């Protein structure tokens, strides 16, 4: 009776000690001390947990402290189960009590599962000395109680680890978002003769859209917008490479068609990549009021005249970048003071798609035509419509760049 009271006292104090454990290592040490206190006659004990393949493996080297010893102990449980079940696989989701095998000089054996919603996530096994009295049903009840407590504690710690891992991933993604933003174009100097307003909304934390607006001096503005096939991190990695090459080509001062040909050449040589990029490149001469456009499988840009006239310009003249060798041509448009040029990715027009309006182009043209003649207000009206059509979270990356020729 005294021994039983001591065991119950140990079990009574265990929950408070479990709550204080901050790591699985502390939890395992606590299990060791708890089992030693409960069962004075034990000679071996082990905690098993499921690995990545779903197999039970020793989680802590208790007792003799050897991995092989732990696996032998698990084998003993399985053999005893098979013998009791007449060679059928035993059920480890139930607690088991086996008598001593004196002929084999093996003591009494107990096992109790660690369960999560009925699924086995671990197993606690205790073996007594060969000369010691066999474990009792009361001893098995105690082991089940210990296993249940440690199962809850293990789930709590792993949930905490998962939360910490998610927090770490979110921190990394936030850093990635900041890095990706730095890849995007920087504001133009105020004396360039062009006003720019840009909006970038990735479908995930990072995305595959990009745009570049660069002041080349002497009233010349170079620019590009593109959409990498795919979404998320993989598209963002390709975007980083492509936008860097686009920026280098733009700074060289070549025509938009030559910019696209240069970037396409680098992508098509990468035979291991199956990614392609739709893109448009522009050259805006603010002094001569001329817009030059080349298009690689991208949606055309939209021009809103100061008079209110609205139309598309710059249709594709070659294949998307990275698909095959291709030639691109330049289209030239004369602009007037205060004209607005809008570049966008297909995530925007896809969001406005309706059965009666293929790709939402009619709706988009109407939004631009009747919006106030201001690049920032036009962008705001378009994004408001996108939000109403598809909700606050776009299904694809959305990029919108508006450039207005100053008066």
Please characterize this protein's 3D structure:
- With 407 residues, this protein is α+β, with helices and mostly antiparallel strands.
- The chain has nine helices and 15 strands.
- It has helices at residues 2-20, 24-38, 67-84, 137-183, 232-251, 256-268, 346-351, 361-370, 375-390, and strands at residues 42-50, 56-60, 96-98, 109-116, 119-128, 194-201, 209-217, 220-228, 277-285, 290-296, 301-304, 310-313, 331-334, 340-344, 398-405.
- Strands 2-1-5-4-3 form a five-stranded antiparallel sheet, with helices on both faces.
- The model is unreliable at 61-66 (pLDDT under 50).
Short description:
The protein has about 400 residues and is α+β, with helices and mostly antiparallel strands. It has helices spanning about 1-20, 25-40, 65-85, 135-185, 230-250, 255-270, 345-350, 360-370, 375-390, and strands spanning about 40-50, 55-60, 95-100, 110-115, 120-130, 195-200, 210-215, 220-230, 275-285, 290-295, 300-305, 310-315, 330-335, 340-345, 400-405.
């Amino acid at each position: 009776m005294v021994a039983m009271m001591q065991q119950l006292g140990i079990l009574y104090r265990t929950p408070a000690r479990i709550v204080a454990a901050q790591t699985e290592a502390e939890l395992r040490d606590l299990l060791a001390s708890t089992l030693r206190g409960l069962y004075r006659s034990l000679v071996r004990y082990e905690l098993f947990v499921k690995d990545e393949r779903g197999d039970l493996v020793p989680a802590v080297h208790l007792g003799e402290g050897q991995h092989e010893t732990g696996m032998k102990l698990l084998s003993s449980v399985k053999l005893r189960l098979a013998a009791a079940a007449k060679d059928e696989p035993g059920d480890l989701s139930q607690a088991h009590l086996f008598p001593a095998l004196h002929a084999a000089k093996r003591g009494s054996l107990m096992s109790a599962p660690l369960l999560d919603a009925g699924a086995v996530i671990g197993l606690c096994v205790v073996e007594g000395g060969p000369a010691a009295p066999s474990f009792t049903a009361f001893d098995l009840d105690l082991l089940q109680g210990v296993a249940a407590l440690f199962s809850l504690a293990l789930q709590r710690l792993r949930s905490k680890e998962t939360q910490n891992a998610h927090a770490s991933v979110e921190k990394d993604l936030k850093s990635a978002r900041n890095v990706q933003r730095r890849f995007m174009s920087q504001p133009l100097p105020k004396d360039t003769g062009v006003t720019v307003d840009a909006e970038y909304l990735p479908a995930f934390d990072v995305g595959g859209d990009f745009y570049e607006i660069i002041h080349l001096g002497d009233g010349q503005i170079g620019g590009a917008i593109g959409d990498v096939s795919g979404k998320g991190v993989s598209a963002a990695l390709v975007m980083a490479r492509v936008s860097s090459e686009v920026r280098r080509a733009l700074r060289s001062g070549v025509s938009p068609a030559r910019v696209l040909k240069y970037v396409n050449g680098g992508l098509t040589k990468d035979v291991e990549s199956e990614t392609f990029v739709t893109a448009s490149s522009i050259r805006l001469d603010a002094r001569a009021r001329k817009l030059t456009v080349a298009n690689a499988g991208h949606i055309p840009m939209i021009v809103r005249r100061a008079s209110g006239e609205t139309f598309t310009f710059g249709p594709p003249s070659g294949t998307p970048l990275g698909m095959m060798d291709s030639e691109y041509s330049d289209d030239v448009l004369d602009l007037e003071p205060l004209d607005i040029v809008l570049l966008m990715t297909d995530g925007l027009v896809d969001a406005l798609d309706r059965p009666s309006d293929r790709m939402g182009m009619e709706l988009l043209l109407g939004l631009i035509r009747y919006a106030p003649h201001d690049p920032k207000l036009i962008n705001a009206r378009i994004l408001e419509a996108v939000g109403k059509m598809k909700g606050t979270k776009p299904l694809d990356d959305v990029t919108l760049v508006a450039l207005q020729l100053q008066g």
